[in-house]
Amino acid sequence: WEGIQEASKSCEKPVTETQLNLESELNVLSDLLDDDTYPLQKAIHRRRSAVSMDRKTQIDRNTFFQFLIKTCPQFNPAPFQSFPSEPQVHLGLFVHRVNDLPTGLYLLVRNENHLKELKEKFKKEFLWRKPDFCPEALGLFVLEEGDYVGLSKSVSCGQDIAGDGCFSLGMLSAFEKPLTQYGSWFYPRLCWECGAIGQVLYLQAEVSGIRSTGIGCFFDDPVHDIFGIKDMSYQTLYHFTVGGPVEDRRLTTLPPY
């Protein structure tokens, strides 16, 4: 408990100068967003965590791109404008069942200012290739093609849900630099950014007619090994999976509101 208390104390934010910029300087490229007619209230009310995936549901390539576009503040400012710093979190993606897209390891770079460093820190043999028909402005890269079903399950504590869906991911956050720049109190902010990304993915899954869930149990060092991260520059803070759900009939669903 002493260690937990010490960590909690270290994460307390001191009084700092206000540096919030309420006017977004982002180049909002909203033309990449689909014209959603799905009511937000309905998506929020229907939002549920999947407990199991069916190992067969597939999504098309454009649906996959929309998931990723929605997590990028330059395309979809809300809810990311609530964070006072630039994006720190990138998505290391295990693509399993996306039509017209090779299975394999991908990376969504949510902050292009980090791209040079990511290429330096990751494995030298990675492809860094843009997928076919991917919007040019979307920072998505194929790192390595292949079957990552087994490995994605393995690094998520052996949980089938990480490999049985359409895709799963690890949220790789810049770590050493922001903590050095701001202090240890900034660590919860990195987790909050991961949480905001997760909530966007939850709602987009409902809009797409599938389900998703966060994965809190994972082995961080083996995840870093997959990407070639050998220092504290980037760390995986949260995992997530998206796919066709298998309903647990033992559970009763009641109106949420």
Note down, in words, how this protein is organized.
This protein is of the alpha+beta class and 257 residues long. It is globular. Mean pLDDT is 92; it is low at 22-28. The chain has a single domain (52-243), classed as NADH Oxidase (3-Layer(aba) Sandwich). The protein contains eight helices and six strands; from the N terminus they run αααββαβαβααβαβ. It has a six-stranded antiparallel sheet with strand order 3-2-1-4-6-5, with helices on both faces. It has helices at residues 2-10, 40-46, 61-70, 115-121, 149-155, 176-182, 187-207, 220-227; strands at residues 89-95, 104-108, 140-145, 167-174, 211-215, 234-243.
Uncertain segments are: 22-28
Estimate the mean pLDDT confidence: 92
The overall number of domains is 1
> What is the fold-level CATH name, i.e. the topology?
NADH Oxidase
The description of the largest β-sheet is:
6 strands, antiparallel
Strand arrangement within the widest β-sheet reads 3-2-1-4-6-5
Question: What share of the residues lie within helices?
Answer: 25-40%
Please trace the helix and strand order, writing H or E for each element. HHHEEHEHEHHEHE
CATH architecture, by name, is 3-Layer(aba) Sandwich
The fourth-level CATH homologous superfamily is NADH Oxidase
Portion in strands: 15-25%
- The span between the termini is 37 Å
CATH top level assignment: Alpha Beta
Count the E strands: 6
- Rg over C-alpha atoms, rounded to the nearest angstrom: 18 Å
Number of helices: 8
Secondary-structure-based class equals alpha+beta
Spatial shape: globular
